[in-house]
Amino acid sequence: MLRKTATTVGSACKNYGLNCTKFAKNRRAMTDLQQIASNNERAEALINSIEAEISGIQQQLVERQKQELIRENAALAKEVEAALAQLVQLELRNGKKQIPVPGSRGFCTSAAPVSPPAEVTSAPTPQAPKPTKEPKEKKIKEKKPAVEKPAAAPEAPVDVGRLDLRVGKIVEVGRHPDADSLYLEKIDCGEAAPRTVVSGLVKFVPLEEMQNRLVVVMCNLKPAKMRGVTSEAMVMCASTPDKVEVLSPPAGAVPGDLVHCEGYPRQPDAQLNPKKKIFEACAPDLKTNADLVACYKGAALHVPGKGNVVAQTLKNVNVK
């Protein structure tokens, strides 16, 4: 029992010692904090004092500069007064009267007293005669040298050489959606895309005879709308009032082959001008001959090296 009590007492003493140590440390920490706070207060007071001194110094500098500027302005004013007085003296010596300006400061000169200005009666000044207007000189327009226009290239003669006739192949054909008498065709003329062509051949040529056949096409007509569809070329045919036959290219011809006429150099317009009526001028001379060959003024239409363009049965009839 005594041993247990002694152990308890020893443990309590030990805890007391530890608590005392902690208390001492905490006390020292509190002292350090108080010291730091005091230092901060002193530093803040020192900063405020320095700022006040700087502000005072700045005010003194500003005031000093103001005084210096005031003194400089006064000195300059005196110099101006002296210069004006000297100027007045010089003018008086040269006989120029000094007229005081109301509201201005007077200038005293020791050279000669300034007498009050006498009243001056102003005599009417004679008006200068109005200058007579000199007649305006007519501007002579300089004629610009005439610029010589380049001579226009002579127009090709009106003949079959102006027509762009080519071999084409009908790759698609059907009835026009809005006209019972018209075919609507897609024709390969050897170009990037087939041309759309509208032909009034329903009454004369069966649909099955139009499919996949070679034809002769005039490609430089101005595109025209026919019942809402733009036609880009014309299929050439031998024609009478009662019968129409599609012209056939020679055997071996392919889409894009050019049709020529002996004696008439091929130089087609890019597009025929409707006002010049070139095709209308050529049409009366486009006919088939007794051998069914399509001709212009008797000269055969042909694909060089392959043969003539022909009709099936119609002789000595118009081609259009």
What's the layout of helices and strands?
Blueprint (H helix, E strand, L loop, with lengths): L1 H92 L71 E12 L2 E10 L6 E5 L7 H4 L3 E5 L5 E3 L2 E3 L2 E2 L1 E3 L4 E3 L13 E2 L16 H5 L3 E3 L5 E3 L2 E5 L3 E2 L9 E2 L1
Separation, N- and C-terminal Cα atoms: 147 Å
Low-confidence stretches: 107-114, 116-123
Major pleated sheet: 5 strands, antiparallel
Mean of pLDDT: 83
Strand content: 15-25%
What is the number of E strands?
15
> How would the global form be characterised?
elongated
Helical segment count? 3
Task: Give the topology string: H per helix, E per strand.
Answer: HEEEHEEEEEEEHEEEEE
Major sheet strand order? 3-2-1-4-7
- Fraction in helix: 25-40%
Pairing-aware structural class of the strands and helices? alpha+beta
Quaternary state of this entry equals single chain
Rg to the nearest angstrom? 60 Å
